[in-house]
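Z., the sequence and structure:
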Amino acid sequence: MNFQRGRSIREEPEINLIPMIDVLLVIIIFLMLTTTYSKFSGLEINLPTADSSKQAEQPNEIDVAVTASGQVLVNKGPVAQADVRTIADALRRAAGSRQDPIIVINADAKATHQSVVDVMQAAQTAGFPHISFATQAPTR
C-alpha cells in the first residue's frame, strides 16, 4: 500500500544548523563559567643596584642579616627560630614606634632562597611593605 502514489513532489533534505549553534553556545557558556583567573599577591621590593655608592644609614632602617646556615639576625640580634612568625615579631620589636620602617636584607651569597623569602614574608606579615636588599660592589 503506497499512500503517496499520487504525490510526485519530492522534498529535499535540509541541514538544520540551529541545534548545532545551540550546542556551541552551551559549550562556550560552560567554558566561560569554569575558567579560573589567578591573582598572585606579591611584595613591593625595591632592588638597589650594585654599582651605586653606599648611602648614609637612615634612622628608619631595620637591618636583617641572613647567614649561610639560615640564621636570622635583626639589628645584629639573633632570632630564636627562623620561622615567619618569630621573625615578624622580632621586626615589630625592632621597629618600636617608628612609622613605616625600611627593611634592609643582608643575605649571604650562600644563604638559601627560602630563608630570604621567609624574611620577606615576615616583613609583609608585620605590615612593613618597604624592603630593600643590601649589595656590595664587586672586588677587582
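Strands lie at 45-46, 61-66, 72-74, 77-78, 102-107, 131-133. Residues 45-50+58-133 form a domain with the Nucleotidyltransferase; domain 5 fold (CATH 3.30.420.270).

Let me know what you think.
H.
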